[in-house]
Every structure is written in C-alpha cells, then in structure tokens.
Amino acid sequence: MNKDNCSTIELLKNEIDEWCRIYFVNKGSYDSILFKAMDYSLNAGGKRIRPMLLLLGYMLYKKDYRTIIDAAGALEMIQTYSLIHDDLPCMDNDDLRRGKPTNHKVYGEALALLAGDGLLNEAMNILFNLSSKIGPDCVKAAAIISNASGPSGMIGGQTVDILAENKTIDIEELTYMHKKKTGALIKASIVAGSILGGASEEDLNILGLYGESLGLAFQIKDDILDVTGESSKLGKNTKTDESNNKTTFVSVYGIDECKEMCEKLSHKCIEYLGMIKRDTSILKDLTVKLLNRVS
Amino acid sequence: MNKDNCSTIELLKNEIDEWCRIYFVNKGSYDSILFKAMDYSLNAGGKRIRPMLLLLGYMLYKKDYRTIIDAAGALEMIQTYSLIHDDLPCMDNDDLRRGKPTNHKVYGEALALLAGDGLLNEAMNILFNLSSKIGPDCVKAAAIISNASGPSGMIGGQTVDILAENKTIDIEELTYMHKKKTGALIKASIVAGSILGGASEEDLNILGLYGESLGLAFQIKDDILDVTGESSKLGKNTKTDESNNKTTFVSVYGIDECKEMCEKLSHKCIEYLGMIKRDTSILKDLTVKLLNRVS
Q1: Residue B46 domain boundaries
Q2: What residues of chain A lie within 8 A of the CB of B157, using their CB?
Q3: ipTM of predicted complex
Q4: What pTM was computed for the model?
C-alpha cells in the first residue's frame, strides 16, 4: 500500500475515533447512564469502515472533509446501534463484540435497547442538523443513508437473517439478505459522501456499483472469517453461524470458492474505481486492505 | 364543542387513519413479516394526537394539509415505535395495548424489536423525503421532531422511567421525566406543524408554551386514568403504575390535586391559544376533548 495513502487512512480513522470519543461526554442529567451506554458501544473500537467510505467518497471531489465529518459520525452511530440490537438476547444473544462485553452485558437489556434506539435517533438528529447547514445535497445524502438503514435496507436484511435461523435458505434469499443487511449501508456510505462532494450522476452510478461489489465482498469475507478467523483477533465469538445453523456463503459454496469470489469482487471494485476520473488511489488501497483483513 | 370543529377533528383523524392503513400494504419480500408487524401496531387504533396537533398547527396558517400529511404519519410511526419497545419484556412487559395483544405477543420479541426500529427509521425516511420536496422549513420542522424523540427527549425520559421503577423519585425528577417522555414530542408536534405552515417566531414561542402545558396536562391525565380508568375503555391494563411501584403525579399529589392541576393547565392552554391571532377554535376544542377524555 502507498505510504501516503496509508497515513491518510490512519489520519481519517483517528479523526473519526476522536469525534466519537467526545460526542457523548458529560451529556444528560437524570438519564446520564443512557449517554454512557451509547458512548460505551460507540467507542468499543470499530473499524469505522462506513464513515471512512463516506469521507473518502467526499474527498474524491473536495478536500475540507471536516465540513461533513458529522455525517461520518452519524453513520458510525447507525452501525453501532444495529450491533447493540443484534446482540440482544432476543436476537443473536452475543456476549462479546469488538473484544468487549456487549452492551446489554454491561448495562442490562432495557438500557441496551434504549441505547440502540438513541444512537439511531441521534444519527438522524445529526443528519437533519447538517442538512440545515449545508442544504439540499445533504438532504439527498441523508435520505440515502436513512433509506439504507431502514426497513427496505438493513432492518429488512436483519429480519431475513432472524427468520433464516435453523433453516436452509437458497442463494437468492441469502444474497437478498446480505445486500440489505450489510450491503445497503456500505453502498450508501460511499454514495452519500460523493453526493456531499458534488459528484456527477455518472460518477454516482459507478460508485454505487463499487459500493455494491464492496458490500458483497465484505460479507463473504465476514463469513470466511467466521470459520477461519481467531476469536481473539476478531473480538467476537467465531463459528457462530455454524452453531446457529445459519446459511452463509461458506456453507453454500465452501471456503475455497468463497475466497475466489472475494478475489473477483475485489478486482471488480478496483475496476469501477478506475472508471472515475479522480484520484481514487486511497479508496483502492482501502478496498484491498478491507478484503485482505484477518479481523 | 362546536359542531364544525368536531367534524374537522373527525375528518383529520380519518385521513391519518387512512394514511396509516395503506402505508405498509404489500411491502417487502422475504422480509414481508417485518412490514406486517409494523402495520399491525400502526393500525391498532391510536388516538393520533401528535399527527392531529401537527396538522392543526399547520392549518392555523395554511389550508392544504395534505401537502404535509406524510409528516403527520411520521409522528404516528415514532409514537408507535416507542410503544412497541416500551411494551417489550425487558421494559414494561405489557401484554395489552390499545385493546389488542402487544406486538411481541403476536410477532415475538425479535420481530417486535425490529418493527420498532423500522418504524423509527421509516419515520425519518419520510421526513427526509418530505424535506427534499418542501425545503428548509421542513428540515427545520423535522429536526425539531427528531430531537424531541431522541436521547435528549423521549428516549431520555424513558430511561428515567425505567431507572425509577421500584424507587421513589422527587417531583423535580418526575417532571424532568415526563417533560421528556411525553411532553417533548407533543410540543414538537404543534411547533413543527406551525413551522411547516410558516408561523412567525412570536407565534412559535407561544405555541411552544401551549405544547408544554398540554404535554404536562396530558401526562397528569394519564396518571389519573391509570388509577380511575377502566381497562376495557383504555385498551390497556390499569393500575400498572402502582404495581410497578412507580412514582406518578397521583402518588405524589393525590387524585384531587391532580385533577385541579389538570384543570388549571387546561385553562393555561386555552389562554396561550387566545394569544395567537388566528382561528384557534379547533385546537381549543381538541385541547378540552383531550383533557376531559375517559380513555
């Protein structure tokens, strides 16, 4: 990876981490524990992939990424809320996330539920406030993010995931599920960032296709790591798909074919980026990094 | 109550009911049960108070309320999501709501959780889409609604409510809780509607005060009905506050003083409305109707 690109990626991640670190500090009154619970999961050490994609999408067109860093933070809040709710006992019942006890293990189920609700809602507050400042382009970008996280996106995908436990689903349903559960918000991140940057319709279409391929590759990689990865590196329990009797890309195609699919999608991503007449080298490096990850 | 006002209120409620009735019909694919679960609670027969307040706030200034009826529907979705999550076993664990089995009793906990998430998120989708159409006034109104439902509003209030179970809280904390839990969204409804209608800053301030008094009166009435009301008329279990050892206005002040407080706040509401140089007679009639309700 190009050294400059590497340090830009590092820099952006640090900026997002810092944004998250201070956001909920000293908030609330009688309800301050709600803010502590939101803060706990927001700062449990995520990879910040979605906010990074948003910022890098924006930076294809404009330099002043701090203007829209709130939108990046909002994306991370949405991602974090979905993890808190997914981990609840009535859902996946997970104890470990990002190497730490899950939210309900620390704060109890009621507060974890409310912390999830709060993060989703606060993300929307941020997007409305930024829309007030920036105007129509931000409203458009926010609508895309909100739609991707909603019932026709992530929540729909999560529904299929829950329904699919302990039964076999076909590849069409599996693809539908992942397109919504993981793919929609990843695609929305890069597209929303580019809209905020002022991308042309043509570029938006190409970046949308890039986002779709990346989202699918990312999920296949996730399924692979659930089988081959180490719990200590991943920061969550592994082989959960198998023990939950879940259909995954690995259970359908096997490890080797999945690795090949991931490789092919990775090339496709790079190809799409090559069609954009901007400096896409950082995005290319991030793509390779994400799909070669071991955790 | 004025007969014309009565039929306007009736008409608006029917329009909101119809909007809710068709919203989720035939939506979804593998995840269609998510849409059914959202539809179930959205159409379980609410009073539609918040959407009514939004429409009536708008109609103080403009007639074509259908232009913004989506915002009214979004408010009802937010209210409905909060009820679904409040009823979950890890929260109030209620079986009955609006005279029907609660969402998780019908669809199970996982789907009820997702249906709640979905309604909150869909409400935001609607508000972003309407903002795209209408512009800055709608962004401002939407930000107020979103802020009122979020961690600094309804979710914060709900947190205090959960923490206050099985312990006595003082009147300051009780007021803080209700101002956020019930008051914030009621106030936001009337204020957002008036913003959409193009109200002056002066009117917005007065209508904000009206909304605050109405919200508080509404909650005191709710506490009274939990003691004196009939479960069959209310469509939910009564005396739940007592059995959950909750501090309420009634447990602090007693029934008679609460009735007097409610009466006084009701007069205050009418006074505020009298300060607006518009035809506020329908809002006055709705206020009286709400605070004299038996269910």
Answers
A1: 3-291
A2: 31
A3: 0.95
A4: 0.96
